[in-house]
Amino acid sequence: MYLVIDTSYSTRGNLIDMAQQAAKMVIDTLTAVDFVTIVRYSDTASAYSSKPVRATDTTKLALKKWIDDNIVAFLDAFGRARDKIPNFIDAFETAFAVIDMGPGTFFWGSNCNRIMLFLSGGAPDEWRASHTEWIRSKAALYSPPMHVLIRPRVGCTSGNAQGNRVRG
Predict the structure, then answer these.
(1) Which CATH homologous superfamily contains domain 2-167?
(2) Terminus of the chain with fewer CB atoms < 10 Å: N or C?
(3) Where are the domains of the chain?
(4) pLDDT, tens digit (0-9, with 9 covering 90-100), for 52-70
């Protein structure tokens, strides 16, 4: 399980809290045979670890603390949310780089199922069909192919907030 979470200006207000809660709920479903990592992104991306880690009870506690410490709205010196534009490409590149270093990848030869859950507070400013095709092609390299679930506008229930599923 790979969680990719938006911490840009688009997740201001209670959206960041909802993203934190969703991530922790997902982590609670994992067992010690599962591997997991988290990538946070705004204008740049960073990961919990350089490769996926086993979801032991100890690791799950550490992941939840990392969520509390890192999945937060970025504030300026006056306590206002900084207007950072989410960089979806950097988020996906960082996530795939971490995934490629862990078990269950074509480098490790495992036949594990893989799911990337991409939580965002909004749609990207610049997105082309070639970006979707790149994700689809990358996901198809894994055996079995990775499922990439993209949930724009976390917490939004309107019709324009439909999630997308990309599978290789």
Answers:
(1) von Willebrand factor, type A domain (3.40.50.410)
(2) C
(3) 2-167
(4) 999 999 999 999 999 999 8
